[in-house]
Amino acid sequence: MSNLSAPRSRANDGFTMLELLIVVGVIVILAGVSVPYMNKTLGSMRLSGAARSIASGIQDAKLRSAAKFTRARLFVDTSANTFHLEVLDTSVNPPHWTVDGGTTYLPSDVTFGFGPVTNPPVNTQPAIGQAPVCNDDNGNAVGNTACILFNSRGIPVLDSQPLGFPPTNLDGFYLTNGNEVYGVTVLPTGFIGTWHTPSAHKPAWVIS
Fold first, then answer.
1. Structure pTM?
2. At the fourth CATH level, which superfamily is domain 25-207?
3. Rounded distance, CA 120 to CA 9, Å?
């Protein structure tokens, strides 16, 4: 008996144009919602990664100063958004700052700054600000720079003080991507802390 009148299975029919349009519409909506969130997440990861690099660079300067029994500093160029390690060569007269290692660049969407944040993390600096300006070999201030410097005992000091005493409480580097702010501070004891405020416009510092 012929089965020409039997109903066809929809499994062989494929999708209708309406169904395809609905699927495409859902994909577009999901993409519109997820892409901004993903961009924000990636931006936050780049900012936190830059802050960790800064903290690591400060720790390297502290260790290098003690290991070589001389001064060492993390040198930040706030206009170029770069930083590198320098060690004071005391074998020459006058002593000369030498670069130790390469230069690190901040991610393209990260800059040195703290935006509208007006207060430093609690029990760190007396007022929020980048670390004191760097001095050249002759003791002259270098524009658009900030340096965190350690003496031969790993204590943070000011470059402007020949003997390096007393320890300074002015050290800190701040980074922002326009939405969040990270701070890396150094206490007079040499303790390095990394801080984070999830919103630059509603700051509330938390230790990272």
1. 0.82
2. minor pseudopilin epsh domain (3.55.40.10)
3. 70
